[in-house]
């Protein structure tokens, strides 16, 4: 078994077996900067850089993604360094946006599996935005969590952790998502 540094962080709360949240993960100024940047993008910007409209891709959870150079070193460093030296981030994924009235169907984490074998150990989601609803639900666990602005959610990549997002009832919910792969000694300066 790996000795996992991030699990020893006093700010981390275990919500359920292998589901953790770190409340207020980033500094307020950092959250405000990225939230302003995300909110400033034009509608067409959300559908560039290989991004898709909901329904354009065979997998619904790929809808409304945005990179737009929004994810930079200032954004990544706190996340990288929180998980170092045990883990590195696999995909350097984009933000996923859900507006009021939108939800996401079951996410089987298919991009994190080769056959039955998971590529990583944990999936992470850093939520930004002022929104209501948009609860993440794990049907096989009979567990759900209502994320809030600046929550970092961490959960095991395993078939029993498949999940979906309930409808956002007000506002816009942004989620930066990635996968953690065990890699002892990795460190991002």
Keywords:
mainly beta, four-stranded antiparallel sheet
What can you see in these coordinates?
This protein has two helices and 15 strands. With 189 residues, the chain is mainly beta. Strands 1, 2, 3, 4, 5, 9, 10, 13 and 15 form a nine-stranded antiparallel sheet that branches. It has a four-stranded antiparallel sheet with strand order 6-14-11-12, with no helix packed on it. The longest helix is centred in the N-terminal third of the chain and has 13 residues, at 28-40. The chain is globular and about 40 Å long.
* % residues in beta strands: 25-35%
The share of residues in helices is: 10-25%
Tally the helices. 2
Largest sheet: 9 strands, antiparallel
Radius of gyration from the alpha-carbon trace, in angstroms: 16 Å
- Average pLDDT number: 81
How widely separated are the two ends? Answer: 26 Å
Summarize the structure.
The protein has 189 residues and is mainly beta. It has 2 helices and 15 strands. The strands form 3 sheets. Strands 1, 2, 3, 4, 5, 9, 10, 13 and 15 form a 9-stranded antiparallel β-sheet that branches. A 4-stranded antiparallel β-sheet has the order 6-14-11-12, with no helix packed on it.
């Amino acid at each position: 078994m790996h000795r996992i540094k991030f699990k020893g962080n006093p700010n981390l709360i275990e919500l359920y077996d292998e589901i953790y949240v770190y409340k207020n993960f980033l500094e307020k100024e950092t959250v405000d900067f990225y939230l302003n940047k995300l909110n400033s993008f034009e509608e067409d910007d959300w559908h560039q850089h290989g991004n898709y409209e909901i329904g354009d891709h065979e997998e619904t959870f790929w809808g409304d993604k945005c990179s737009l150079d929004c994810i930079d070193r200032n954004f990544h460093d706190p996340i990288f360094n929180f998980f170092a030296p045990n883990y590195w981030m696999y995909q350097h994924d984009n933000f996923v946006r859900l507006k009021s009235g939108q939800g996401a169907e079951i996410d089987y984490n298919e991009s994190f599996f080769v056959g039955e074998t998971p590529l990583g150990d944990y999936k992470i989601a850093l939520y930004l935005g002022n929104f209501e609803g948009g609860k993440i639900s794990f049907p096989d666990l009979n567990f759900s969590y209502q994320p809030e602005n600046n929550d970092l959610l961490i959960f095991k990549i395993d078939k029993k952790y498949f999940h979906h997002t309930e409808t956002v009832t007000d506002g816009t919910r942004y989620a930066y998502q990635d996968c953690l792969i065990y890699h002892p000694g990795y460190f991002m300066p």
